[in-house]
Amino acid sequence: MSPHASRVAFRHTLHAEWVKLRSLRSTWCTLACLFAVGLGITSLATSSAGAEHESASAAERAAWDPTNLSLTTYVVAQLIIGVLGILVVTSEYATGLVRTSLAATPRRHRLLAAKVVVATAVALVVGQALMFAAFLLGQSLLAARDVPHAALGDPGVLSAVAGGGLYLAAIALLAIGLGTIMRATAGALATLVGIVFLVPALAGLFPSWLRGLLDFWPTRGAAAVFATVPDPAYPHPWLNLGGMCLGVVAVLAAAFVVFRRRDV
Amino acid sequence: MTMIDVTGLTKRYGPDTVVDDLSFTVEAGQVTGFLGPNGAGKSTTMKVILGLAAPTRGSVTIDGRRYRDLPVPLTEVGALLDAGAVHGGRKAYDHLLALAVANGLPRRRVGEVLARTGLEGVAGKRAGGFSLGMRQRLGIAAALLGDPRVLIFDEPVNGLDPEGIRWIRDFMRSLAREGRAVLVSSHLMSEMAQTADHLVVIGRGRLIADTSTSEFLRRSGEGTVLVRTSEPAGFALRLTASGATVREGTESSLVVSGLTGAEIGELAAYHGIVLSELTPQRPSLEDAFMELTKDSVEYQGVTA
Q1: Which of A92, A228, B14, B216 could staple A97 via S-S, CB 3.0–4.6 A?
Q2: What fold does the segment set B2-219 form as a domain?
Q3: What are the extents of the domains in chain B?
Q4: pTM for this model (two decimals)
Q5: CB A26 to CB B89 under 8 A?
Q6: What's the pLDDT tens digit per position in A201-215?
């Protein structure tokens, strides 16, 4: 018998999940896509800003938020980072690999926790990197057009940029939860699109008691964190983001429950 | 030594009882063939052994412990349930490395199992491009990573070419010779007769037979002798008079049971009868298996 650990520890499971994530080409493709699309949208959004600012009224100029403008790329970026989170779980179900993984790590909560930790760490790093890159790129493009622009040291800017990175990481976590519950890529992705796009778009149809929930909804209230000019509807954007994070925790909790109980 | 102990195992999916009060053991140092028609509950039983499916009733232990309580699972049990269970985008080496580090096994084990299964040459290739035979080998390599004392294979020869089948068969035998307990499922009786020392036969989730392979072969019939002669009718009478059972075979041959080939030959010589053929026939294992499981096949075809 070969020498080995006398007991499997959480760090072993973490290491294995990291090997799995980094050894897939799809991981790196998704990340490359995230930056290409994310920064592409930032440059599109800011390059048309010169004309907009020119023709803006005084009131519109007062509400001019160059930080928010450069970060609007989150709308699409959240979907791509969501795909990454979904695939961490559903690619194992699609191939049957999940059985092999669970044979190696029969403690199911430990396996899912390792996936959550590894994917969160990656999502935090790339989410922050994307938001900072988008901000810097966007501001330099605005500066080139002689439109009012922001610097990282300006009031509220760092909070918006770093908060944006956290927002993206939270969406990745939500995606892992959805992937675990749905067990299929298509179903999980459709649900994610429904949450971040359809529900906000159809918000007007909801009864008033449900609309309170939208204050903490992705792309709605929780996205107030991206602004530096305070929105009167959301005076404390971090509370809205915190509310969304609580919702993500609830989805993850459900994911842990079903992952333990189901046969695979 | 008992390595796997299945006790009173019952598994229901909704109203369907897939495994019904099943008990058997798998011993070290031998290949145990797990036989049954498709849908008999073999794969489900294996999933319960590995903790992938929860039993409705009953229990399974590996060397006295539940699978999920094994401190380092891959060093105790290696399993190949489905050769396709590999992410096609991952290289063979990385697939094995992820499993090895998950159990704190040294990195060199990956190279060792790749060598033992003859996959060194494709270690850096993505598993998506592997043939079925190569995927089976990769699955076996994964099962061997922790140098386990118990190995579980679900239908390992399904879809393989003759060379692959022979390789897997020899491999199972060598694993058992090393003292490991090997549980291998199949729906092919003839395959198991050549590989297994012990047979556990199930049908519709129930135990039908739990016996050594040699005992199973002995009980499944003593065999017949095919006899061809120019005067079959007369010789048939003499054979019957000597206590044999005779029925007509194809092309005016006789199928004789109850006498050995030598006895039939002596009888013919004594009566001066010329035999043109005298062929002892092995009992058909598939026949014996079909006979055993005919009441428990899920969907029976109608013979035209």
Answers
A1: A92
A2: Rossmann fold (3.40.50)
A3: 2-219, 224-282
A4: 0.86
A5: yes
A6: 998 888 888 888 888
